[in-house]
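Need tokens for this chain, all 168 residues.
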Amino acid sequence: MKKILFPILLLIASFQVIAQTKTGTVDSELILSKLPELTKVQEDLKAYNAKLESELKVKIDDYQAKVKDYQEKVASMTEPMKKTKQEEIIALENDIAKFRQNGAQLVQIEQNRLLQPLYQKIGKALEEVAKAEGYAQVFTISNSGLAYIDPKFDLTKTVMTKLGIKPE
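Here are the structure tokens for all 168 residues:
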């Protein structure tokens, strides 16, 4: 009897502990969009993108100059010279293609690097709010696809206030 009674009591006690935990939600993307520092991040990202575009333009201009030079002199070139120039042109084409492919990834990496301090700031404020208000768990609703959220457990406005952002 004791072998059965003890596990049942333990199970009931664990349900009571679980039932007492407080769970909330936060929209970190909304908070991020309201942070004044986001403007600087967007400007820096735009400048980085312009730098990449400038580098690509240099590569394309170099490629076009080599192609034009090849077309103008091809008649007077020996076969080994033609082959060398063609290989140079093909290498430049491949370099341009690789640069274009990597460009989007480079922009994403830079964006993540620039946004990381802002997400850390939001995370710190959220942690302080959650601890102060006794939340055991907080879910982000930005990309979660939750079907229902009770607004009284949404900490978005509280975190925004903590960060000095006026909630709308």
